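Hi C.,

You asked whether I'd gotten around to modeling the 113-residue construct. I have! Everything is below, sequence then structure, no commentary in between.
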Amino acid sequence: MSDERHQEPMRSPSSRMARRKGRVRKSPLTPAEPEAKALLPEGEAAAPRRFVRTRLIPIWLRLIIVIVLMAASLAAGAVVGYSAIGDGKPLDVFRPSTWKHIIDIVEKGTDRG
């Protein structure tokens, strides 16, 4: 006892929400338009239209943006760590003498000879 009234017709592979939002275009030949087939020459099928997405920001520019943001966050972290946690002047962290001093402290702690 199957009730054929409640069976839905076969749907296209895309989701209903994508079709509703207009992201997926239907092909020009749908089952509801049999007269459109009569306009095509015999044996020729219409190619389905596909949604082509273009990138707003190219990949190479994304990589540059990520590298710049990483460098900025490294510099900001060093400034905050040296000035707020280490009680030093904020811009002293960029002096080479500061890093030489830090390296000397680290190397002095590892020599046990």
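If it helps when you're writing up: The two ends are 90 Å apart (CA to CA).

Thanks,
B.
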